[in-house]
Amino acid sequence: MQVLSGLAMRQARVPIRVISVIANSIRSGNSPKGNTIVLLEGVKMKDAQVEDQWVWVVVQDPGGKEQFLGQYDKREDISYIPAFYSKEEAQQCLMNMARRKNCPYEVQAILFEELAKDAAANGFMVFILNEKGQVLKKIRP
Predict the structure, then answer these.
(1) Which residues partner with 56 through β-bridges?
(2) How far apart are CA 98 and CA 51, in angstroms?
(3) Structure pTM?
(4) Strand order of the sheet with strand 125-129?
(5) Which of helix, strand or coil describes residue 47?
(6) Dmax (CA) of the chain
(7) What number is the average pLDDT over the span 30-35?
(8) Per-residue pLDDT tens for 82-113?
(9) pLDDT, tens only, 3-24
(10) Which among 117, 123, 112 is positioned nearest to 70, based on CA atoms?
(11) Please, which residues have CB within 8 angstroms of residue 62's CB and are 6 or more apart in sequence?
């Protein structure tokens, strides 16, 4: 019998979707098939499922030359797109983000998977932030 923790599964690059399916199976009272017991303590489902869920981003110039509002961290020399678990968090944090004057902004939902593709294609990371702008998770797509 093999026992895997959530951290061990992530380090082994078990797809997040698999972890999510297993966790949902365990929560519903069904055991995963086979001889593997999965221990998910310490794994927040909010974090574990980020790749399968909608996130909220700030869109610059909606309806025009739309693009995600990116940010730059001078200390770490990293360009990133801020993403949020809720619309309210994104709206609250928008006030503290660097942005162009006289340019409209709108908070919109997007599948994380689509955001990650666009971010990777343009050399950006994705940072999951809270309403105060604190980094909850850094993701290199």
Answers:
(1) 84, 109
(2) 26
(3) 0.64
(4) 71-73, 78-83, 125-129, 135-139
(5) helix
(6) 61
(7) 46
(8) 999 999 999 999 999 999 999 999 999 999 99
(9) 444 444 444 444 444 444 444 4
(10) 123
(11) 104, 105, 106, 108
- 8 Å CB contact between 47 and 55: no
Cα Rg of the chain, angstroms: 18
Structure tokens at 105: 């902004």
The count of residues in the chain is: 141
Q: Contact, 17 vs 51, CB < 8 A?
A: yes
Provide the residue type at 112 as one letter.
Answer: F
For residue 138, the surrounding DSSP H or E stretch is strand 135-139
Bridging pattern class, strands 2-5 and 67-68: unpaired
**Alpha-carbon gap, residue 83 to 71, rounded angstroms:** 11
- Dihedral sign computed on CA atoms, order 84, 90, 92, 98: positive
